[in-house]
Amino acid sequence: xxxxxxxxxxxxxxxxxxxxxxxxxxxxxxGEILCHVADAGPKDARLAEEAAVQAQAEWARTAPRARSExxxxxxxxxxxxxxxLAHLMTAEMGKPLAEARGEVAYAAEFFRWFSEEAxxxxxxxxxxxxxxxxxxLSRRPVGPCLLITPWNFPLxxxxxxxxxxxAAGCTMILKPAPQTPLSSLALAGILxxxxxxxxxxxxxxxxxxxxxxxxxxxxxxxxxxxxxGSTGVGRILLAQCxxxxxxxxxxxxxxxxxxxxxxxxLDVAVDGAMVAKMRNMGEACTAANRFFVHRSVAExxxxxxxxxxxxxxxxxGTRDGVDVGPLIDxxxxxxxxxxxxxxxxRGARVLVGGRTPEGPGCFYPPTVLADVDPGSRLMDTxxxxxVAAILTFDDEDEVLRRANDTPWGLVxxxxxxxxxxxxxxxxxxxxxxxxxxxxxxxNPAAPFGGVKQSGLGRExxxxxxxxxxxxxxxxxxxx
Length: 479
Hints:
2 domains
């Protein structure tokens, strides 16, 4: 692993926490401490806020082309440093190196995408219907932002928020997850090298999220919150934003249905299942959580999926040939094991996996469960692990009712060879995104987000920058 940055990044400078506190960063493959990083407190948050506020006016006046070129340079630097960023990510988060390299490319693409969107911010003009006034519409940055990112995609979730903020002309404070601060600090270093002015991006690593974030959200100077994480934490943050009416974007939890109809191409469906379930070891909000498979093909689908899952190699992400790395920590692994045990107690059959291995590290084997009772806890909980739970269904109306019977609505997957059915079912799912005969929906050029308790707003795509812009309407009398 390359030398890591381990201080706070405030006002363009690398600084220790004001009280000198540090926190450990663990390797989930071994349980050993990789390093210590600065553990920010409220004073550090105030300093970061002041830096962002002071930089906002000048940054908002910066030419769109200048903002675009900074993002483009950062994109190129990320691509040049793919291997070192991938090793850093694998060390702190656990995913296999091949997958980490894929995330680096995915993360970089957000900067390239928003470098192109930065020069396409426009407004409008026209005469109002009464003929008395001309209407001039302009767009301007919403102002200083607080960006809170999760641990499961530590680089990509940073670029997905930072990219549009930079493009729109917003300054920001980034608070990464305490489990994975190193990727975010490396990203700050890259942006500084790419020419980002001091104070535009500030990175505050902390284990004291409540002490750091709540005063920022209630203080009135932060005008935008972009959060990716659990629905429970999202609710708390929404309440904290209420007093000062902070604009919010929320990418929250999911409970994705994966529907396989009787006419599905099972080879395609199993391929899709492997992507939708096993990307990032199942630690993804887009992960397929509930597998609804038509009764006539459920046995064959389960057999094929178990065969593919059982062939995956589990081990440290840095080891050659490894397909599945460790889960993020012991708490995450214990949760997965408890959900599997509950399903088995309720009658589920274990087709493969299902046992916590001995030895160091937070590993859990790829697992397929068949004949899962609908009342099992894992039907109402985001599993966040390599477990595929299969239930059967008999008709379209039934599976739609069951698929939509959840407070979450991020993504769904549908497999059928009938175009009419595929479109009909996709449009009937109460989700923000659908993969039709594919297990991968994430793309920087597409709007990412959900409905119901899976979130507010969209990230990525042509609309991603809208979350960081306000409209101003100017009325000019017609003379």
